[in-house]
Specification:
Length: 241
């Protein structure tokens, strides 16, 4: 039987503190990794490679924060870029910058031919390269409200450097989202052919970053509401200019 709860916030807190639900969540996330569950979804025709829950959460953040520019590192097939561009189209303002060390020809062509490409800029190169970051920074100069989404190389060192660089573009009340922090929570060799894994991943980078940077805090409210997410400890809110 559900407890008697006065409001939605209390209900979310109760759900987050429910040990049975937490155990089920861990088992579910552990089980779906081998099936590449996040590859099942598209946005406006492009693979987005995200959990539906995180897609909804990101939508809420964008429509509330109304960023002038959204930066995504690690664009894969471009579904994320199209997703962000579609929300900015609804808002009637803003642009998206996609950075990837390799933008494959078929993905570039699909994006360039997409009706929302008018809001998208593509930059090929490593997101941590000084010249690439300079290009991104130059595109952000007119913007007062920048949102950053990190989803490229998931190694600790790479994500930490991304955090150090791209956090400087986010102002108070803006968001910096670090995806796939959940790698830290998966037991066993779930990523045998990858350079990242337990102890070396985006979450460990977030933890180290926050030890030295007091401009950002983890927005636990988002994680509590979602329950199922690839980004535990990855929704960072800027609290200082």
């Amino acid at each position: 039987m559900l407890p008697k709860i006065a409001n939605d916030r209390a209900l979310i807190n109760a759900m987050q503190n429910d040990e049975e639900i937490k155990n089920l969540r861990k088992k579910l996330l552990q089980a779906i990794v081998k099936y590449k569950y996040t590859y099942n979804f598209t946005w406006h025709g492009r693979p987005i490679i995200q959990l539906p829950e995180d897609i909804v959460a990101t939508q809420e953040i964008i429509l509330n924060a109304k960023p002038d520019i959204i930066i995504e590192t690690g664009i894969a097939h471009g579904g994320g870029l199209v997703f962000y561009a579609s929300l900015l189209e609804i808002l009637g303002k803003g642009s998206v910058i996609g950075v990837d060390i390799e933008i494959r020809k078929h993905n570039r062509e699909a994006l360039e031919n997409h009706p929302l490409f008018k809001r998208i800029s593509l930059i090929e190169g490593s997101s941590t390269d000084a010249k690439i970051f300079s290009q991104v920074s130059d595109l952000c100069k007119p913007a007062k409200n920048v949102m950053v989404i990190l989803d490229s190389d998931h190694t600790h060192a790479h994500v930490l450097r991304e955090l150090e660089l791209y956090s400087t573009l986010v102002r108070k009340n803006g968001y910096l989202i670090v995806f796939d922090t959940g790698i830290e929570d998966v037991d066993g060799p779930a990523y045998p052919n990858r350079r990242w894994g337990k102890g070396n991943n985006p979450k460990t980078a977030v933890w180290e970053f926050l030890k030295k940077n007091d401009r950002f805090v983890i927005d636990k409210d988002i994680e509590s509401k979602l329950l199922i997410t690839v980004a535990p400890d990855g929704y960072l809110k800027c609290v200082k200019d």
